[in-house]
Amino acid sequence: MQLRQAIRNLWEEKPLVLIMFAAIFFRLIAVVFSKGFAFHDDEFLVLDPAGSWVDGFDYNAWLGGRPSMNNAPEGPSLFFPGLHYLVLKYLKWRGVMDPQYRMYILRSLLALWSLIIVRVGYKIANFYSGKKVAKQVGLLLAVLWFMPMLSVRDLVEMFCIPPLLLATWMTINPKRKDRLITYMWVGVLCGIAFNTRFQTAMFTGGLGLVLMFRKNWKHFFMFGFFFVATFVAFQGGVDMYIWGRPFAEFRAYIEYNINNNRGYPFGPWYNYFLVIGGILIPPISLFLMFGFFKSWKKYTVLFLPAFCFFAFHSIFPNKQERFILPIVPFVIILGCIGWNEFVTSSKFWQKHPSVLKGFWVFFWIVNCMALPIVSTMYSKKTRVESMYYLYGKKDLKNFMVEESNRGSVTQSPMFYTGRWNFSPREITNEHSLKQDYLDILHVPDTMIHPNYVFFFGKEQIEERIAAFQKMYPHSSYQTTIEPSFVDLVVWKLNPINRNETVYIYKFDDKVVNLPN
Fold it and tell me: Which residue segment(s) compose the domain that 138 sits in?
């Protein structure tokens, strides 16, 4: 009873302490248990390139170092992978080489970085609406069902949120908003967010409009100058060093997105209304969205930058759910502020407080059911563990990926092998199997000779293994890797998420049967 009362007193007197404790607790759980990667980009556009640079390779040929490529910039910003490079380089210097141990450290650093979201979100809400609303906002940012898991992912969409929130808070904070130097830091922070995720330029543009409306031109030009300076320093300087001309990657990025704007998941203009309405759990999500849009005029500094970002992504054809993540905290903050103000002045909600309480009870039940499951999910487990199985294998020469059941091959997260000096063989049909066999016969370079094979998927697995063993009779079963529970659920809901069982075999490429 005394402990419960102490917690209640702390919740009333110093709620941010409890909120930060909850945020840290669930993020630590995610650090330990939520392995793997969430999307293609956080692995293959961040972790794998950085890991290869540390070992002297150029995984995606982003540094112009692969002679078989066109040696042309491909578009992605090197800022976030570059930060990973620095961390991984330090870990290598300290002798930390195991990929999974490295990931524990990276996830821990990302978790610490994400705590800024919780703390600053609480402060903004507390400034505008007081402690009651701030507690609500802080708790949502701390333990919303997907926040701990996404907070430890190598996602540019998550990493850019803290600088955007800090920049917003600086323009609001009465102790800082009148200082000229404040807008230097606001410009730098928006520049960091932009270098992480180019699309945050829409948010920065909205914030610039807010500063223009204030007609304090010194603040506006200080903000603009240091935003541009940060952009030039990172994008111009790095590209000048690699490509001999500034902003080569940025131009390539714009050209690629214009030319391929319909080459990715396409959705209607209202797609992100549905995304936010779903991930924030209805009907509370609808209340928060109502509060967000209702308060546009009163809290322009919170609304306009986020709305510019939201409107751009709603108009642009390429729509992936993660793209909208940078403004989700802003929807939560302003949504809670606006909704609570509406409830205070609404005759209906004042007469029916039990109905609103029931909706919140439903929200927290659903959230608390999903939170531990998602916070401990091992995403893309089979792909990660199959590569990690090869880590430390001294007899490893190369490996094959056999997916003849699908006719295409899943990309392998090479970071977890700890090696980059080989090219995986892809078996998508009988022809590719025979061709790989012929290559082994006629090419003496042992580095390209595979001696491990990964069979993805249970479909016709016995027939596929039998066909393989006709050509490679000296093969032996090693292990089976099963998908995680959440991977299985996601796969069943949408088969495009290829989270399949993997069967690993080792074979002797020196003794083979000649095909007819």
Answer: 1-153
Q: Are 105 and 87 in contact (CB under 8 A)?
A: yes
Q: Could you tell me if residue 371 is inside a domain?
A: no
Total tally of structural domains belonging to the chain = 2
For residues 505 and 478, give the distance between their C-alpha atoms in angstroms, rounded to a whole number. 5
Compute the distance between CA of residue 18 and CA of residue 1 in angstroms, rounded to an integer. 18
Contact (Cβ atoms closer than 8 angstroms) between residue 151 and residue 111: yes
Q: For the segment 99-136, what is each residue's pLDDT rounded down to a tens digit? A: 999 999 999 999 999 999 999 999 999 999 999 999 99
Helix axes 328-345, 284-294, angle to 10 degrees: 90
Main-chain dihedrals φ then ψ at residue 396, nearest 5 degrees: -70, 125
Residue 496 lies in a domain: yes
331 neighbors 289 (Cβ within 8 angstroms): yes
Cβ atoms within 10 Å of 434's Cβ, excluding its own: 14
Could you tell me if residue 127 is inside a domain?
yes
Q: Answer whether the bond into residue 163 is a cis peptide, omega within 30°.
A: no
CA 334 – CA 331 distance, rounded (Å): 5
In a domain, 369, yes or no: no
The H or E element containing residue 461 is helix 461-471
Task: Determine the average pLDDT of the residues in 367-392.
Answer: 94
| Assessment of whether the complete model's pTM goes beyond 0.85 | yes
CA distances (Å), origin 47, targets 87, 99, 113, 401, 499:
11, 11, 17, 21, 20
Residues of 139-155 as b/e, b for ≥16 C-beta within 10 angstroms? bbbbbbbbbbbbbbbbb
Residues 6 or more apart whose CB falls under 8 angstroms from that of 199 comprise 309, 312, 313, 323, 326
Domain endpoint, select from 153, 185, 214: 153
Smallest Cα–Cα separation from 332: which of 281, 286, 283, 292?
A: 292
Distance between CA atoms of 502 and 297, rounded to whole angstroms? 54
User: Rg for the chain (alpha carbons), in Å?
Assistant: 26
Q: Where among 153, 186, 201 does a domain terminate?
A: 153
- Say if residue 68's pLDDT is above 70: no
Burial of 19 (0-12, 13-18, 19+ CB in 10 A): buried
Mean pLDDT of 248-258: 79
**CA pair distance 309, 324, nearest whole angstrom:** 8
Q: Which residue did the predictor score with more confidence, 426 or 463?
A: 463
In this structure, of 105-114, 262-271, 331-340, 371-380, the range with the lowest mean pLDDT score is: 262-271
Residue 252 has pLDDT above 60, yes or no: yes
